[in-house]
Amino acid sequence: MNSVMDQTTEATPEQIRDNKLYKSMGLTDHEYGLIKDDVLHRLPNYTEVGLFSGMWSEHCSYKNSKPVLKKFFTKGKHVVKGPGEGAGIIDIGDNQGVVFKAESHNHPSAVEPFQGATTGVGGILRDIFSMGARPIASMDSLRFAEPKTDADKYFIQQIVAGISAYGNCIGIPTVGGDTAFDDAYAHNPLVNVMSVGLMDLDKIEVGAAAGVGNSIIYVGHKTGRDGINGASFASFQFDSEHESQRSAVQVGDPFEEKLVMEGCLDVINNHSDSLVGIQDMGAAGLVSSSAEMGSKAGGNGMELNLDLVPQREAGMSAFELMLSESQERMLLCVKAGHEDEVLKVFADHGVNAVVIGHVTEGHNYKLMHHGKLVADVPVDSLASQAPVYHRESEMPEHLKNVDTNQYQPKITNPTETLKEMLSQLTIASKESIYETYDTQVQTNTIVAPGSDAAVVRVRHHDKALAITTDVNGRYLYLNPREGGAMAVAEAARNIVASGAVPLGITDCLNFGNPEKPDQFYELDQAVMGMTEACEKFEAPVISGNVSLNNEYDNIPIYPTPMVGMVGLIKGLDHITTQDFKHAGDAVYVVGKTEPGFNGSQIQKMQTGNISGKLFDFDLDYEVKIQKLVTAAIQQKLLNSAHDISEGGLITAIAESTFGNQLGVDLTADLTVADFFSESQSRFIVSVPQEKQAEFEQLVGNDAQKLGKVVDDNHLFVQANDGYFDIDVDKAFGIWKGALSCRLK
Amino acid sequence: MKFAVLAFPGSNCEMDLYNAIKDIIKEDVELVSYKKNTLEGFDAVLIPGGFSYGDYLRSGAIARFSPIIPDLQEFAKSGKPVLGICNGFQILTEAGLLPGSLQKNVSAKFICKTEPLVVNNNHSMFSSEYQEGQMINLPIAHGDGNYYCDQDTLRELIANDQIVFKYDSNPNGSIDNIAGIINKQGNVLGMMPHPERAVEAVLGSDDGKGVFQSIVNHIKSRGVIYE
């Protein structure tokens, strides 16, 4: 029993070497050589090659992105846990922590949209409750191509239905997100899910398995053949052949997850003396969760008996058992002698739980199957010692010799251009999507989807959390660094507009193939831009996820680092929404309007493309403007605040009229075209009459009064060279109906 | 008085109900597991929304076989108030405590939004706090909320004044715009909208308080605990 046995039906170590079978699992010649010569000093068998292929995939090891991720600003006085665990934690006072993380499920969703989306939601929720937090809200950041065919529409509807099915069933409100449409995401949609949890800070759990003799307990669904080696799959890039990769997609069961969640939270909250560590089985399933737990405990040895793993199908091999990504499974390390106590908790919740192994002396990770030793590798070689690549970086061709002039919109009839803008899918109301999400369960949702940020109260305290997701890939395509900073800035504007102060961010870094220098450049630059902005906003990165190889037939998506930001509202009376509230209130634009047309929605709408040098962005000015708006909200000077982003000032004005069907009568010293500029650092706000003097004193020259809110249901905005003139209900109808109409 | 809030595997609104009763209505309330087989000591039973048993097979169809159900049926027979909300309504129809059934919404999609309702009957023990014909705003959140019954049953529901709440603009295809009905005895109400989500103005509406307050008033006006 001392030698590592090979399973008879599988390729022999020699066949793997001679026929380079490791390549089909995603390992390179170089990586195979490392395993053979530096780690094991012998030929790895089939199971072992499988373990390394999963653990050394980008999805698990971050081997291509680690050097970049190290650049992130992760410190802050309120950070309790930064990146590295299931999710990060920030102290929000009163012994409470907010826990959040985002995860991408782009590849599974591309081949099976419904299940890809459900399992995306399920996976991120496990990351949250494995920290000991109860999930209180989710968000979804989606990127699709413009729907043209019935298949496109079906695809979008299935993604939305998957999110709805999982989130609604498990009873965690989906409170918002963002959805944008661009053909850059054809064949490679983005499905990013963010979840936020709340916990008592004295209940933090970590994913570590320490203490020789302690037991490893498997919890949840049985293991089947779904999602075998999905982590490696997610690290490949798609091509026209990817339809054949359907077997790599998992199937979600929200009912089981609900039981698993309640069981785990029960163990964490009421049996913490028995618990050493807990981790979800996500990417690369059992091997990833167990090896990471052993490695985090300082390279502890571990032995698992695979015959004890609950199995859905007969005859599963060790490779399949270890690399399956069957959903709704957790792994716990429990103190020796306390196993029965923990198993009983799960039994009470109707959840399958079984001891499958132990923490052992030494540093090796050993797997037994059918009485034979089928893998024996140093635990750190799988996890903390995975290879790291410093990729080459080179500016992409499309960023060289760009036209530095800003695009000039062509507008003959301003009202018609506004109507066209409101019907752009990226601009139009997403109600037909979010009305299929349960936004209110748990009864804490104060601001539901549709405003700048969602607001969820912290029950029994006079405080609330503001949550948003944001990124505009077009900006990053034209300038990854500035675009990355803008993504953080816009998220912060949303948070600030809702009355909150930014706490921190999570991210999903959706990029192309890092082995291509021009695409690595985008990733590297974007992270630098994001981190510069995070530092300015004092909003550290506390968690995140990387999704590379988002390409189809070698054409990458726009670089799209989704930013999920959470802010704290101290005092529920600071909560602010974007809707104008009362006729007679004065309307101001805070922040300077500059020509911002390259990469804008109007450039895309009028030319079908985006091009040129991205408009300028001044981070210090952005911070200054946001601080002014925060001050105005805290001094209770504002009745509404709305971030100005895609579609520009006129779009923001129109959106502010929709909620309460109030009109406006405004005049600005701007051209009609300026009203579509997407220059950053701006808000549209409304101020009650009696507060105007105080507000003007606060903002000085940084805000311009445009006019006032009126109650005649009419939007009238006079520019220097024309005017916008439309009934609010007409504009509202166009904006509200555009998306549902295009998805019919 | 004391409320029981039943909790089935997959229920997800039990804490919302619990918090509404405890924090807003300020009455005693206790969560009761589906595994229990007694409801002794409770004056009213609330069955929460959610997805009991994942709503696999059919909404409420598996929960209906839980150990607590025979006792719930006894409790209902005794005349004490039983309120099923959303999945709770579906469980009540499956358990034979209310007529009809809840089908998939006509849109075939889950719908979550606040809907205007008309109080069709304000002399039930669940609606006495409202005026007859009053419009109230309550959130709905369901995929299977399309109430159906045959024409004879519908005639009976109308004749006995069993339709308590109606939708003002039907969101799911329910027959006769039905949002909530009581049994013939008047002590079992099933409704798809969520009154527990509308008990605080900060959450958008407190129109739902009346449902719970009506129950409290009914119990307290009797001045006795049922045998």
From TrEMBL, chain A:
Q: Binding positions for Mg(2+) 1?
A: 103, 545
Per UniProt, subcellular location reads as: Cytoplasm
- Sites where the protein binds ATP: 62, 101, 507, 544
Q: Which gene encodes it?
A: purL
Q: Which residues form the Phosphoribosylformylglycinamidine synthase linker domain?
A: 16-63
Reaction it catalyzes = N(2)-formyl-N(1)-(5-phospho-beta-D-ribosyl)glycinamide + L-glutamine + ATP + H2O = 2-formamido-N(1)-(5-O-phospho-beta-D-ribosyl)acetamidine + L-glutamate + ADP + phosphate + H(+)
What Pfam family is a match for this entry? Answer: AIRS
Record domain PurM-like N-terminal: where: 84-199, 450-568
Q: Which residues, by range, are in coiled-coil regions? A: none
Protein name in UniProt = Phosphoribosylformylglycinamidine synthase subunit PurL
Q: Which GO terms describe its biological process?
A: 'de novo' IMP biosynthetic process
Record: residues binding substrate: 104-107, 126, 250, 325-327, 547
Write out the similarity annotation.
Answer: Belongs to the FGAMS family.
Q: Which CDD domains match?
A: PurL_repeat1 (cd02203), PurL_repeat2 (cd02204)
Q: What class of enzyme is it?
A: ligase
Automatic annotation (TrEMBL), chain B:
List this protein's GO terms for biological process: 'de novo' IMP biosynthetic process
* One cellular component (GO) term of this entry: cytoplasm
Organism lineage: Bacteria, Bacillati, Bacillota, Bacilli, Lactobacillales
Specify the species.
Lentilactobacillus kefiri (Lactobacillus kefiri)
Role description: Part of the phosphoribosylformylglycinamidine synthase complex involved in the purines biosynthetic pathway. Catalyzes the ATP-dependent conversion of formylglycinamide ribonucleotide (FGAR) and glutamine to yield formylglycinamidine ribonucleotide (FGAM) and glutamate. The FGAM synthase complex is composed of three subunits. PurQ produces an ammonia molecule by converting glutamine to glutamate. PurL transfers the ammonia molecule to FGAR to form FGAM in an ATP-dependent manner.
The catalysed reaction is: N(2)-formyl-N(1)-(5-phospho-beta-D-ribosyl)glycinamide + L-glutamine + ATP + H2O = 2-formamido-N(1)-(5-O-phospho-beta-D-ribosyl)acetamidine + L-glutamate + ADP + phosphate + H(+); L-glutamine + H2O = L-glutamate + NH4(+)
Task: Kindly provide the name given to this protein in its UniProt entry.
Answer: Phosphoribosylformylglycinamidine synthase subunit PurQ
Q: Does the keyword Nucleotide-binding apply?
A: yes
Q: Which gene encodes it?
A: purQ
Its pathway is: Purine metabolism; IMP biosynthesis via de novo pathway; 5-amino-1-(5-phospho-D-ribosyl)imidazole from N(2)-formyl-N(1)-(5-phospho-D-ribosyl)glycinamide: step 1/2
